[in-house]
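Fold it.
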Amino acid sequence: MISDEKAHIITALDYLGNFLKKLPEDIFLQIANRAQNNNPWFTPEQTQSALTGLQRFLDRDALESWLGPYDLSLPKKPKHVGLVMAGNVPAVGFHDLICTLLSGHKAHVKHSSTDQVLIPWLMEEMIGFYPPLKELVEFEEQLKGKDAYIATGSDNTSRYFEYYFGKYPHIIRKNRTSVAILRGDEEKKELRNLENDVFQYFGLGCRNVSKFYLKEEEQLHDFLDAIGTLSWVADHHKYINNYDYNKSIYLINREPHLDNGFLLLKKSEALVSPISVLYYETYVDSAELAAKLGRDTEKIQCVVSYKGWYPGSVPFGEAQRPGLGDYADHVDTLSFLLHL
């Protein structure tokens, strides 16, 4: 049974989705330019991609389908939940905010210094439609004395989060990345779909593919041929600075690598590659592949494969299209909040 307040929040989220779908171009450009001024990685194109992704969440049917299996009569008493948000992808913390509101708690948000524009703007629009939300969301610089915490960051910041938040109920997220599996029978148009998985958000997201597992190194040439020049990537000054830096390191150290002018491909058993670098590793058969993936299970957010043939994977091009139930680090955020 959904309470009246939660029903109103669903209506407000659905309203926000429709608002984004009909957003006039001039208003979008104003907010996108503000976001880019705050963080040069957030180009208008990347902000548009993020907002388009949010529209899939902000839909009444999608929300009600997602909420269906949960006991929304919980919790019996609302809590104060601290949300420490990441800033690697535009509005990446909005899903945690949705979960907190729909679980009946009050959200205390510390947004990232690199994403200070979009989430406050989205909340302002929702509050304009449903004013009681103003009492349920606060933006704060320091999150002290809350009942529970959800904090997203790097492996380094996770130690900080553990120190400060470990004695409270918490979800603390570390570095994650995504991988692609190639077996050699992929069509060129399917390989082209990998372009989004690798380059959307300039590779900064946990759902960005940073490593290929493949049968033969020749498949790398097929991939490079399929993606072409991608001038929008090569023309971004921060991205190309990373490319130039990593290329110079490989050349100075005489490390073998492939180079197409904006992407470096390097053989490595490591999982998380630097910006502008794609790691790869070969495998002989499914057993060896499973062993390699099993080695890094705790670090992999998403696996992509040709038409989703590998168990638990999604098709090429779908890594950046998660559903409401595709939780970060595979931890059910809504269930955690409902059972506080």
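The chain is about 40% helix and 15% strand.
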